[in-house]
Amino acid sequence: MSTPTFSHSSTADEVAAAFAGEIRGKNVLITGTSLNGLGFETARSVAKFGAGLVIITGRTRERLVLAEDALRAEIPGANIRALVLDLASLESVRTAAAEVNAYPEHIDILINNAASSIAPFRLTPDGFEHQIATDHLGPFLLTGLLLPKLRAAPHPHTPRVVYVASGAHAWCAGVDLRAIEHPREGEREYNGMQAYARAKSANILTAKELTRRARGRVLGFSVTPGAVKTNFGENDETRAELMRLGIITADGTPTSGVTFDWKTPPQGAATIIAAGFDPALTATPGCYLADSVQNDQRVAPHSNDLVMAEKLWELSERLVELTYAF
C-alpha cells in the first residue's frame, strides 16, 4: 500500500480519509472544542470518519452545547459526549477526569488541544501563571489521571497522547522552571507571547518525556498546526497582543506584510489527526509533526533537551501532586 502524501494545504478530512481505517471505532477525547477552533475541526473530522466515541470539552456548558449541536447536525449518527473542563483549575481537571474514568469506554487517543488566550499576567486559582497552567500543568494532570483509561485500550492498539504545540515555541529560550514554580517573581517583566512560547515548548518536551517513561505503553506526539485563523484571536486580550506584534489588523484579519503562510482551521487540524492516527508514527514515538508529517528538524534545540524534559516532568508531578503510574 502506498504511503499517503500530505502538504501545507492538506485538510483534516483529507488526512482522516487516508487513515479512516485507524479512526474507525476509536474513542477520542479532545480538549478545547469551541466552534471555529482546531479542536472542533478535529472532532468533526474524526466523527465523520467513524470514531467510536468523541468526547468534546469546553470551559462552560454553553460553549459545549453550541459545539455539540453543530456536530450532531452535521453528523447525525456520531457518538458525541460533552465534558465541562477548565484546564486553568486543577479542581476542574480532577472533577472532569473522575467523570471520564467512570465511563464504561476506554480512550484510544487523548488530544491536548485547549490553550489559554495570550493575555496580561494573571494567576489561576491554584497560584500558577495562567498560560503555563492551561497549556501545560492542566493537561499534564489530566493525562496522568486518565492513564487507566488509555492503558485499557485493547491490544494491539497503543494509545496516543497528542499535544498541540506551536512553531512559536522557537520564539523563546525554552521553559523556565523557576518561573513555573514562582510566577510572581517574573510578573514585572512578563510578556504574554513569551509565556505562550514557553508553554508550547513545555508541550514538546512533555510529549518526548511521556514517551520515554511509558516505554511503549503510551505514545506521545507534539504538533504545530501552523498559523491558523481561528477563534483564538477573537479574545480581546489576545487580539491586542497579536496587533501589537503586527500579526493581525484591528478587525482580526491577518496582516498582509506578515510572512506566515496562513492556514484555514481544517488545514490546521490536519496535522493533529495525522499525529493521532498515522500508523507509520509508531516507529518514531515522541516526534514532532508539521504539515501532517514528522518534522523534527523544526524543533528548537531547547525543546529537544531531554535533560530539561526530565526536570520539567519532575517539577510538574510535584506541582500537580500526581505521580504517573504507567
Automatic annotation (TrEMBL):
Alphabetical UniProt keywords: Oxidoreductase
Record-linked InterPro entries: NAD(P)-bd_dom_sf, SDR_fam
SUPFAM superfamilies (alphabetical): NAD(P)-binding Rossmann-fold domains
Molecular function GO terms recorded: oxidoreductase activity
Entry keyword annotation includes Transport: no
PANTHER family in the cross-refs: RETINOL DEHYDROGENASE (PTHR24320), RETINOL DEHYDROGENASE 11 (PTHR24320:SF283)
Family indicated by similarity: Belongs to the short-chain dehydrogenases/reductases (SDR) family.
Protein name: Uncharacterized protein
Originating species: Mycena albidolilacea
